[in-house]
Please model this.
Amino acid sequence: MKCKKCNSENPENAVFCRVCGNKLESHSHSKSSYYGICNVLFWMGLLVSSYCLISVLFPISWYEKFFDGSQHLYYSDPFGIIRDGKKWYMQEMMSTLIVSSFVTVILFYLRKKSTK
Model:
């Protein structure tokens, strides 16, 4: 690897030039961008997984009464984004939790692998 400042030859794994001490540019730019993408996706997956876990563990439930005297039980997540009956709510949240956790684990592995 050649130094851009003094044009001297250095070993491939060198970080600094052994003649002038200038920092050498590495050829692993694609690796760092790959790490950045994995890192962003990992934290987004972790956020979604955490949100789903909180929603499954602490659902908010209430009854709504209708004019004819009947009532319906609703479930909602803590932030009020999803609102539906218990069956649909739990199916949706559990499937989202499983998928997002699986994706987060894969991204954690890729993120850890790309740092080596």
